[in-house]
Amino acid sequence: MSIYTGRGDDGETDLRDMTRVSKASARIEAYGTVDELNALLGTVRPTDHDDINDRLSAIQNHLHVVQADFANPNPDEDDPAIRPAHVETVEDWIDAYDEELEPLTSFILPTGSEHGAALHHARTVCRRAERRAVALAAEERINEDAVQYLNRLSDGLFTFARVVNARDGEPEEAPEY
């Protein structure tokens, strides 16, 4: 299989159902930003924390499902799709890690250890992916569970960053106003 086909040289690409769309379409922006998030998480992993690594691996697989979901304008029942169970999984992880953390009393700066700061960065890319998904949803029908998943995932990545920083002995810094 050739890596290049030349089919995208005209500024268009194929969706899952083989319809052609502009590479600047809201759909491509949405799943392209999810792809960026997935690649960014690949630079975070592995951390020094096996449980976080396991979560990030699962998330990277979930993000592939989100991409497939967004790349498919006419999904069938059997097509890959984010489901409420994916959202619940992230919520369960957040709840479990919250027990390990001190309660937040203020906003915190997105900093810390190498992996903690990278997870904060990933959170911001996740928020952008969510904004792109909301923009797509304003134009076309998409799976609302995928948008909810990205929303919850950004909270999860924030929590993972806090956990990694706490375990690495990095203090949280409040912004100065």
Automatic annotation (TrEMBL):
GO terms for molecular function: ATP binding; corrinoid adenosyltransferase activity. Keywords: ATP-binding, Cytoplasm, Nucleotide-binding, Transferase. Residues 3-164 form the Cobalamin adenosyltransferase-like domain. Transmembrane segments: none annotated. Gene3D superfamilies: Cobalamin adenosyltransferase-like. NCBIfam families: PduO_Nterm. The keyword Aminoacyl-tRNA synthetase does not apply. It is found in: Cytoplasm. This is Cob(I)yrinic acid a,c-diamide adenosyltransferase. One of its GO terms (cellular component) is cytoplasm. It holds the Pfam family Cob_adeno_trans. SUPFAM superfamilies: Cobalamin adenosyltransferase-like. InterPro entries: CblAdoTrfase-like, CblAdoTrfase-like_sf, PduO-typ. Its main location: cytoplasm. Its EC number is 2.5.1.17.
